TrEMBL record:
InterPro entries, alphabetized: CyaY, Frataxin/CyaY, Frataxin/CyaY_sf, Frataxin_CS
A GO molecular-function descriptor: ferrous iron binding
Protein name, entry field: Iron-sulfur cluster assembly protein CyaY
Record function comment: Involved in iron-sulfur (Fe-S) cluster assembly. May act as a regulator of Fe-S biogenesis.
Domain of life: Bacteria
PROSITE patterns documented for this protein: FRATAXIN_1 (PS01344), FRATAXIN_2 (PS50810)
GO BP annotations, alphabetical order: iron-sulfur cluster assembly
Keywords of this entry: Iron, Metal-binding
Family listed: Belongs to the frataxin family.
Annotated organism of origin: Inhella gelatinilytica
Matches recorded under SUPFAM superfamilies: Frataxin/Nqo15-like (SSF55387)
GO annotations of cellular component type: cytosol
Length: 110
């Protein structure tokens, strides 16, 4: 993947996650704090647990850190996929975000 493609796709993902955090805050009464510093997005839940999503340009990857561990994603088949399991980023992210939030969450932002 070209550097420009990587940065555009990774940036799109981070912006979508920021927008989703705002939607959860406004629509679902989930008090999630989204903090962005460059290529790092930190989501803090009321129970003080965090999920961190960050860009890894040298590897053309996006990483997710959750209570259960770390996950690496690479663009494949037109989506971000876990480098080990092949699962889609959205699936893994929602699983861990829901677990840490203590309730089932869904993406409402396209």
């Amino acid at each position: 993947m070209q550097d420009a493609d990587y940065h555009q796709r990774a940036e799109t993902l981070l912006r979508r996650l920021e927008a989703q955090a705002d939607a959860w805050l406004q629509e679902d009464d989930l008090d999630v704090d989204a903090s962005r510093n460059g290529g790092v997005l930190e989501l803090t839940l009321p129970n003080r647990t965090k999920l961190v999503v960050n860009k890894q340009p040298p590897l053309s990857e996006v990483w997710l850190a959750a209570q259960a561990g770390g996950f690496h994603f690479r663009w494949r088949d037109d989506q971000w996929r876990d480098t080990k399991s092949g699962e889609r980023f959205e699936q893994v992210f929602l699983e861990h975000m829901s677990r840490q939030a203590g309730r089932a969450l869904q993406f409402t932002v396209a």
